[in-house]
């Protein structure tokens, strides 16, 4: 069974009488354990697709099955639960709570979880160790480098053990060295069995994935297997 | 989400903006504090007035000759009525069971002279019961006697203010003052009594036997007042009724004729003062409502700014699974805590001011436990009520838009 199954997803925005169609008839399947890149120029609809895939926004029409459940028409409350349990987000701008320690930032999804494990902090330490930040537990985002912040975000996306990690331009705000580090972390997650969806406009980043879906003007332009196997490619020294 | 978790999220958010939190609660703080002080002032002055009323004479009825009208907020006699006499006083004492003491009373404001000092004072004539009814106590010397009354002798007991005016620091007992060219020997001095409900100085008087005043000075047979002490508080009303019947009969008033006297009991005075203090209470409630409304608006404004400023934080929380209700709860807790902080500090300030003014200032303030209790839940209520709108606004933000906001 596909983890993500989209059938004829359309999304349009109405703005002062004009209707802008951002996504047109997107149909795609992503299976458990897949490592997928969604690539396209800015304005192609990548972010909208990611918002719908991450249940942050709902399609105008079409069906979206996430882990077997039709989530295209769920109530706001249920969508919140789905986001909490099924999806881990990694954002370009990190989106960490300012002034809050790495540990507490990582714990955040568990704060809103209904099945909170008893030793939240131990679990947070565990995932922070996984991304190599066991020595930065009590630092606030302001005291961390960009790469470290992004790894805190990844740790946060992992803590509730969701099946899917959605990463929106994860290397966009990082220098090349930190970008490589971050991509290595994703490669490792896939190796551990997670499903990772990368959204990027950088073909070098996209190459890390096993499968590259290219979006142009709100439609899928191509859906091909990557040339190089996961994790073996290296980023160019100067990723944008 | 558990109560404690949302509570600690709210607390942490407030702690990271201490100045703003304090400013938001300032309106409530000042409102609550001023209400507590005002209520204490009201209570204090009410207590003071009640003490004065009780001090004028316990279970006392004053019978005034003529009709009494309220003019300029005070009761004044109108007309010159000559039907009230010492004989009425004697009949009241003899015939009515509820009556304990009776003192017919007449007074004139006149000059009293000692050496070269002249002072206008109240020359009061009454009987032996007068000090007992009105609560005057002899501090020095003695009260005149039954024999002085019978012989209309020229002796006087004088109040502290008059002593000061005429004698300064000298001991007045045994001295002679002249009133209306008649020499009076001072045989006693009253203890200080203070002002009455009309604000008149009760210590500015020279008390002489009633017959002396009536025969030697004013030359009349009627009196303008009779003071009566009733045996108990419960008997004031029936006693008043019996006195009225007796006086109407004695003054030969036919059914349709109005009373030619006016009775004011301690209960009437208390009632009058209670009305005044009720007005004061309404005023306090009004002022309280306005200041708390202003305080609430302060909370509203700060919370709205806070929601706007933390749009991205809201987006982050929503993205990791916070429901609308979680967001509402978080912001409601914040405004609730602001309200409680304001209320708590307000109560502390109000109580502090009240105790301080009582201790160091010349004020009579009475802390009202009710007002403190009310304040503590009202401030919480305001925090919630004025926090609802910002909280709902926060929860309605679209998660995706909130995340991408600049």
Question: Can you walk me through this structure?
Answer:
The complex is a heterodimer of chains A (240) and B (406). By secondary structure, chain A is α/β, with parallel strands linked by helices. Chain A has helices at 46-53, 76-86, 102-111, 120-130, 146-158, 176-191, 203-206, and strands spanning 2-15, 18-31, 35-39, 61-66, 69-70, 87-90, 164-168, 195-200, 211-216, 219-225. In chain A, the strands form two sheets. In chain A, strands 6-7-8-3-9-10 form a six-stranded mixed beta sheet, sandwiched between helices. A four-stranded antiparallel beta sheet of chain A has the order 2-1-4-5, with helices on one face. In chain A, strand 1 and strand 2 (18-31) form a beta hairpin. In chain A, helix 3 (102-111) packs parallel to helix 5 (146-158). Mean pLDDT of chain A is 88; it is low at 230-240. Chain B is of the alpha+beta class and 406 residues long. Chain B has two domains: 2-51 and 272-404, no CATH class; 82-259, no CATH class. In chain B, 56% of the residues lie in helices and 19% in strands. Chain B is built from 13 helices and twelve strands. Chain B has helices at 3-15, 18-55, 86-95, 129-134, 146-151, 160-167, 210-218, 236-250, 266-309, 311-319, 324-360, 369-396, 399-404; strands spanning 60-65, 67-71, 74-78, 99-114, 117-126, 138-141, 155-158, 176-179, 182-190, 205-209, 225-230, 261-265. Chain B is elongated and about 105 Å long. The chains are: A alpha/beta (240), B alpha+beta (406). At the A-B interface, helix 2 and helix 3 of A face helix 1, helix 10, helix 11 and helix 13 of B.
Give the helices and strands, then pairings:
The complex is a heterodimer of chains A (240) and B (406).
Chain A lengths: L1 E14 L2 E14 L3 E5 L6 H8 L7 E6 L2 E2 L5 H11 E4 L11 H10 L8 H11 L15 H13 L5 E5 L7 H16 L3 E6 L2 H4 L4 E6 L2 E7 L15
Parallel strand pairs in A: 3-8, 3-9, 6-7, 7-8
Antiparallel strand pairs in A: 1-2, 1-4, 4-5, 9-10
Helix pairs in contact in A: 3-4, 3-5, 4-5, 5-6
Chain B lengths: L2 H13 L2 H38 L4 E6 L1 E5 L2 E5 L7 H10 L3 E16 L2 E10 L2 H6 L3 E4 L4 H6 L3 E4 L1 H8 L8 E4 L2 E9 L14 E5 H9 L6 E6 L5 H15 L10 E5 H44 L1 H9 L4 H37 L8 H28 L2 H6 L2
Parallel strand pairs in B: 5-10, 7-9
Antiparallel strand pairs in B: 1-11, 1-12, 2-3, 4-5, 4-8, 4-11, 6-9, 7-10, 8-9
Helix pairs in contact in B: 1-11, 2-9, 2-11, 2-12, 9-11, 9-12, 11-12
